[in-house]
Amino acid sequence: MTNQDLLYHYFSNSLTAEQEVVFKKLLETDAEFKAAFEYENSLKKAIKSHESDVLKSKLQEFELELNSKKTHAFNYRYLAVAASIVLLVSWFGYNTFFGTNYSNLYQDNFIEYPNTVYTITRGDDDETLEREAFVAYETQNFETAIEKFDAVSETGAQDYIPFYKAQAYLGLENTHQANVLLKQIVAENTSDFVAESIWYLALIAIKEKDKAQAKTYLNNLISNYNYNQAKAKTLLEELN
């Protein structure tokens, strides 16, 4: 994979865990790569800022025109102008200009964590509950995955099971149950997935429009862990 491919996958939020390691290493060691990343990131912000200025200008023109008229009579021309404003808001995104677009931030950054703990191969005759759970997880059959993870827990589960169970809940958009599990992982601080849990807790807070909580989680991640640091810093900039 080329450096340009890595940048593309970063900004489309599709880096794998292995690619993310390479990405972070290049940011730290390759000045040219870092410069390309900063250029792309600045360009993204500039486009967003330009779109904001365009819409604000249109809204100001519309307001001035309305204020210049002394009559309140219905006017089809005003309706056409208003419709144009609505189209602009729809095109650029209402929250982009009138507040944080929490939904877009969540969707742009959320992706189910890949199965990195249990290898599944064809012809494998292992019929354990754990294998069945991860087969269901990898095929996005999240309800079955949760049932199997629950069954595994009853037989003495590995410490990564709660994390993947939380991921399955997120796949079903059940952020409440996922939140409970992820907070427990962070509180116990014995799993290999503490940093990852903090990242997903931040995303849940964003989805629930809790900016203060999201920023707390992101700052914790940046200060204490290496996982998704670049993305966490970008998200903080979006929330500020």
From TrEMBL:
Keyword presence, Transmembrane: yes
Coiled-coil zones: none
The organism's place on the tree of life at top rank: Bacteria
Swiss-Prot/TrEMBL keywords: Membrane, Transmembrane, Transmembrane helix
Keyword Calcium: no
TM regions (residue ranges): 76-94
Pfam families: TPR_6
InterPro entries: TPR-like_helical_dom_sf, TPR_rpt
Protein name as it appears in the record: Tetratricopeptide repeat-containing protein
